[in-house]
């Protein structure tokens, strides 16, 4: 048996036996072998793809003679295979060929006709060494540029694939929601909250640009660049990595999930503002729960069964751990640096639900401590090592990462005895969590139907809850479970953000919560009755809408496929007809104006021809007029009926270009700049 290989840098093809012996050079330096990429064998020929010549070539596999180009490709060809029955003979036997070796999932061959059974991610072999069973006890830890998950009983076995660049840059805090099979984390480099799933699928290309050609009784299969839709990132087991919150937060070092109520808490520590925010698990109904007298937050933890929120925060001269109800009320200092000199840079807060203790790591003093709620005392866990960086409590044991020996340890959670190294060569750990559905149980006043709250339900004890409204909403005076939006405010966009500010002089009032996943909002509008905000994204060529409370997000218009792969400047103007229930937008690439229903259905070109580059647009649904600007070689302002008829040039003199149009419906005047 032999293995043929290519060396792209030396432009040559070589062959060796499977053990690396009997090395031979088949050919070198031929013009068709200028930048080989992939290789395949069939009978007496060797086939390869070449990037410089954009071709599939074959030659005699023994001496490199009889060279011929069998196929030209439009783009650089990548891999190559030969599809033929003789390439996969069925008359040979191996142990895995007989009923999959009695393995429930994977049968993997070894030497001398031996084999072993193995399991997919988040499973492990049972005692019979044949059957895979669910294994959902996973030790999760984050380090710079990566998140890993290993089997708790076999800590060197990765039970989930590593999540790394570009999905992960600086994963500061980890948490999970077991019943949704989701893992969440905050990334302080990009200031985002992200998540991925334990299960999911990947995007596949159904039709690609590859070519095929029949050769005698075989088919040469060549892969080239394909039209795979962008935007999906593979996560733990093929799940999609999503950005849940990507705006409105700074340096989110604190993060915790209330798995019972279905809420998340995240800190934002900027130059001038330190807050703790709450939202549901989709990032909707974002609102502030703690803002006054808050330093830079380093860590968060929750007790969903008792309705408690914990955080550590610090200034230049004071480090503090506080507690409140989950709506931010009833704040209480548990311990401060004034009373405990070891409380220096407290991080990695974690709640031990069984013993009712709050644990944390003092990174600077090298101590792990806990607050005992039964005695109201702070205790220190005696450790054999003095450089812990992260900790978590699980099944009565303390798991902690230690910088000193770059290892993850496990010991008794009270006295530190029986300290064992669980995993070596694991330094610079930022966060530890143990994924186990069995520890996310229990109920609280928000666990059924969100406590009948229209926005967020925040537990404040084991029997009481508070309904909290999203930013820009107030509690209904007639029904405290409902929320009423602020009636009027100024709404504007700055590149990747949508902003709001009050029309009165009180600029401190927040009127609009952060809207995430905005790329380039070049034009905006709204529908007051339905409470929707609309924006045209010129980077993606889309029109998106979302409710003011962050729910109901929907891309209603997407650009058509064309020869241009990057849809920059496809949509630059947007207007909403709130009476008829239509939207209008300008498309400067194709020099048309289109319309559709509010949900993007029934798309139709309403104005075309005699336009160079339509940009801004406005509608008067009462008068039935459509106004738009043309920023082409002859700038002008035009008007038409809402069906595109009766086109009239309004202004075409003494203007260089028009950036935007505003209408005064009461006096039937238009303003432009």
Automatic annotation (TrEMBL):
Swiss-Prot/TrEMBL LDL-receptor class B repeat ranges: 307-355, 531-572, 581-623, 624-667
Family matches, as SMART domains: EGF (SM00181), LY (SM00135)
Alphabetized UniProt keyword annotations: EGF-like domain, Repeat
Region (Disordered): 1-22
Pfam families: FXa_inhibition (PF14670), Ldl_recept_b (PF00058)
Keyword Repeat among UniProt keywords: yes
GO CC annotation terms, alphabetical: plasma membrane
Compositionally biased residues, Basic and acidic residues: 1-12
Record GO biological process: canonical Wnt signaling pathway
GO molecular function annotations of the record: Wnt receptor activity; Wnt-protein binding
Segments forming domain EGF-like: 95-133, 445-484
The name this protein goes by in its record: (California timema) hypothetical protein
Protein's organism: Timema californicum
Lineage: Eukaryota, Metazoa, Ecdysozoa, Arthropoda, Hexapoda
């Amino acid at each position: 048996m032999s293995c043929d290989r290519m060396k792209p840098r030396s432009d040559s093809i070589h062959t060796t036996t499977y053990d690396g012996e009997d090395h031979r050079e088949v050919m070198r330096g031929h013009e068709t072998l200028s930048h080989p990429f992939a290789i395949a064998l069939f009978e007496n020929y060797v086939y390869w793809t070449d990037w410089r010549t954009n071709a599939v070539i074959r030659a005699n596999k023994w001496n490199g003679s009889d060279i011929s180009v069998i196929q030209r490709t439009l783009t650089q060809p990548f891999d190559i295979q030969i599809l033929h029955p003789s390439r996969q003979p069925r008359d040979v036997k191996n142990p895995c060929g007989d009923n999959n070796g009695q393995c429930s999932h994977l049968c993997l061959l070894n030497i001398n006709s031996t084999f072993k059974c193995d399991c997919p991610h988040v499973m492990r072999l049972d005692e019979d060494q044949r059957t895979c069973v669910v294994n959902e006890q996973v030790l999760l830890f984050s380090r710079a540029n990566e998140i890993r998950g290993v089997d708790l009983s076999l800590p060197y076995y990765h039970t989930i694939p590593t999540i790394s660049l570009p999905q992960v840059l600086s994963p500061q805090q980890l948490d999970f929601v077991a019943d949704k099979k989701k893992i969440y984390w905050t990334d302080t480099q990009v200031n985002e909250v992200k998540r991925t799933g334990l299960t999911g699928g990947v995007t596949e290309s159904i039709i690609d640009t590859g070519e095929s050609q029949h050769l005698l009784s075989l088919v040469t299969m060549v892969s080239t660049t394909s039209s795979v839709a962008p935007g999906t990132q593979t996560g733990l087991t093929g799940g999609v990595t999503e950005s849940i919150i990507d705006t409105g937060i700074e340096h989110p070092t604190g993060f915790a999930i209330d798995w019972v109520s279905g809420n998340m808490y995240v800190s934002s520590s900027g130059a001038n503002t330190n807050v703790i925010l709450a939202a549901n698990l989709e990032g909707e109904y974002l609102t502030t729960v703690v803002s006054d007298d808050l330093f830079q937050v380093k860590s968060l933890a929750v007790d969903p069964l008792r309705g408690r929120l914990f955080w550590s925060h610090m200034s230049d001269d004071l480090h503090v751990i506080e507690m409140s109800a989950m709506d931010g009320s009833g704040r209480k200092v548990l311990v401060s640096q004034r009373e405990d000199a070891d409380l220096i840079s407290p991080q990695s807060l974690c709640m031990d639900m069984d013993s009712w203790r709050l644990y944390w790591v003092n990174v600077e003093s090298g101590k792990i401590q806990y607050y005992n709620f039964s005695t109201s005392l702070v205790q220190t866990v005696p450790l054999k090592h003095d450089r812990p960086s992260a900790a978590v409590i699980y099944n009565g044991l303390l798991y902690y990462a230690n910088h000193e020996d770059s290892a993850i340890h496990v010991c008794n959670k009270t006295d530190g005895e029986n300290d064992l190294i669980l995993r070596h060569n694991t330094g610079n750990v930022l966060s530890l969590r143990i994924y186990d559905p069995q520890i996310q149980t229990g109920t609280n006043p928000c666990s059924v139907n969100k406590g009948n709250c229209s926005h967020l339900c925040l537990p404040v004890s084991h029997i009481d809850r508070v309904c909290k409204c999203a930013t820009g909403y107030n509690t209904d005076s007639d029904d405290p479970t409902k929320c009423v939006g602020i009636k009027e405010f100024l709404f504007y966009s700055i590149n990747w953000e949508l902003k709001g500010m009050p029309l009165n002089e009180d600029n401190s009032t927040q009127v609009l919560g952060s809207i995430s996943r905005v790329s380039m909002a070049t034009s905006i509008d709204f529908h007051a009755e339905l409470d929707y905000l609309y924006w045209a994204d010129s980077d993606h060529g889309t029109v998106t809408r979302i409710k003011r409370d962050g729910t109901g997000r929907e891309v209603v218009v997407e650009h058509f496929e064309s020869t241009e792969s990057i849809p920059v400047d496809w949509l630059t103007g947007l207007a909403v007809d709130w009476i008829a229930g239509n939207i209008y937008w300008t498309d400067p690439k194709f020099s048309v104006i289109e319309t559709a229903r509010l949900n993007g259905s029934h798309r139709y070109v309403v104005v075309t021809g005699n336009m160079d580059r339509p940009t801004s647009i406005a509608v008067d649904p009462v008068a039935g007029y459509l106004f738009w600007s043309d920023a082409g070689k002859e700038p002008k302002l035009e008007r038409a009926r809402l069906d595109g008829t009766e086109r009239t040039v309004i202004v075409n003199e003494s203007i260089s270009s028009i950036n935007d149009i505003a209408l005064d419906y009461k006096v039937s005047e238009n303003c432009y700049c």
